[in-house]
Write a structure and sequence with these properties.
Blueprint: E1 6-10, E2 17-21, E3 24-32, H1 39-49, E4 55-62, E5 68-72, H2 82-91, E6 97-104, H3 111-129, E7 132-136, E8 138-146, H4 150-159, E9 163-171, E10 178-187, H5 191-199, E11 204-208
Antiparallel strand pairs: 1-7, 2-3, 3-6, 4-5, 4-6, 8-10, 8-11, 9-10
Helix pairs in contact: 2-3
């Protein structure tokens, strides 16, 4: 079975996009994010940038295995802003991204249909200008071993071209034995093979993180 282990996201934050509709101005932005904790600072930053705006509507999606998402209308009629913005994230097949559309009201009401269209178009224009990249879904493992087995571990890491995330060697005072810990990462489709290789090595322990 072919395991899907890639996803699409943004290489970097986009440039500001401006869309005008009946005197209202819609400013669009997109940012790559890894966690929900990044959302509030981004919104706060855009509030400072546009202090006269009425609505700061957004949608985000985070995750590759377990997806979390949110669509926020920020005072616009229900489902007229956040949902059309989120629809564009889905249309472009992205994750780990937040899309924000800031509206400065121009004095003319757009109606439900007009709002949905304006937020959708702004979100689409932002993503059309964005630099979209493909990333791999990586699985992290922790390798535990006595220092005497260091070469054995490093040989596999080198042969399989595995990325080392962190590496520590610690002396255990009681026994005087130096213990090694190496966190590695590998593409999801290779994870089972890599686990089995280390699991079958004598005096080596491997744990999935």
């Amino acid at each position: 079975m072919d395991i899907k282990d890639t996803y699409h996201t943004l290489a970097k934050a986009t440039e500001e996009i401006l869309f005008k509709e009946k005197s209202s101005k819609f400013y669009g932005y997109a940012f790559p994010i890894e966690s929900e904790e990044e959302v509030r600072p981004i919104i706060d930053q855009l509030r400072k940038r546009h202090p006269n705006a009425v609505h700061y509507c957004y949608a985000y999606q985070i995750g590759t295995e377990k997806i979390s998402y949110r669509a926020n209308d920020d005072g616009e009629p229900s489902n007229t802003a956040g949902v059309p913005i989120y629809g564009q994230i889905q249309s472009f097949g992205l994750t780990n991204v937040i899309l924000v559309v800031v509206r400065i009201f121009g004095g003319i009401k757009l109606g439900v249909g007009g709002l949905i269209s304006a937020y959708k178009i702004t979100a689409q224009l932002v993503l059309e200008e964005a630099e979209i990249i493909e990333k791999t879904i990586d699985i992290h493992f922790l390798i535990l071993f006595d220092y005497k087995n260091m070469n054995k571990v490093m040989r596999v890491i080198k042969e399989k071209k595995l990325a080392i995330v962190t590496q520590t060697i610690k002396l255990e005072n009681d026994s005087g034995v130096a213990l090694g810990k190496i966190e590695i990462k590998t593409r999801k489709k290779n994870a089972e093979i890599i686990f089995d290789i280390f699991d079958n090595l004598f005096e080596i322990e491997i744990k999935r993180l």
